[in-house]
Amino acid sequence: xxxxxxxxxxxxxxxxxxxxxxxxxxxxxxxxxxxxxxxxxxxxxxxxxxxxxxxxxxxxxxxxxxxxxxxxxxxxxxxxxxxxxxxxxxxxxxxxxxxxxxxxxxxxxxxxxxxxxxxxxxxxxxxxxxxxxxxxxxxxxxxxxxxxxxxxxxxxxxxxxxxxxxxxxxxxxxxxxxxxxxxxxxxxxxxxxxxxxxxxxxxxxxxxxxxxxxxxxxxxxxxxxxxxxxxxxxxxxxxxxxxxxxxxxx
Length: 250
Description:
With 250 residues, this protein is mostly helical. The chain has one domain (2-246). It has helices spanning 2-30, 33-59, 66-94, 99-121, 133-165, 171-204, 209-230, 234-241, 243-246. α5 packs antiparallel against α6 (171-204) and α6 runs antiparallel to α7.
């Protein structure tokens, strides 16, 4: 089980890191702002930031040496920085002209930044003090970012399916939107499970294997959605382009 979990986490880290670097290069070469936002988001949320937080967590939350605390703090800063970049991507791609969307993005950014600043100010470098208001503020901000990203992608996919029914739109694009919604949902679920695991550990002092397995499965699902959305094998592209896949009930 531990090997399975490690492989699931590693697959997500590797896919996110490779894709993040590629998107940053593409964004710099053609001036694409969404690519830059997404590249930073994936490197922070799934690549280096996620890895920096995984290492201390794997060693154990009760081991609080200076190097591990530093690594955990760096990982959280990178993760939350990735969340802010995800906000930028969601706003730029799905709601660039929406005033309400700008207000939502600003609010989530304030919650995320304020929460992590409050945790660090209180000496919670691990991000595990569930009795702190700052902990829950950061949780609401970060998970709100992921929830919004998933909902926007799902709504966009529904629009594409309706256009497909009228003979407009490309089925592969609709499938990519579905995969991006799946990525957001998997990441949101992962963060909820991590929060639940933190609360239960604080209450019982136990690490629940079933929760660890579910978290690992969410990491695997996240990596798989990214891989199929950005590097789909030819066989998958043909399958996604078929009418049975492209035109499910919206």
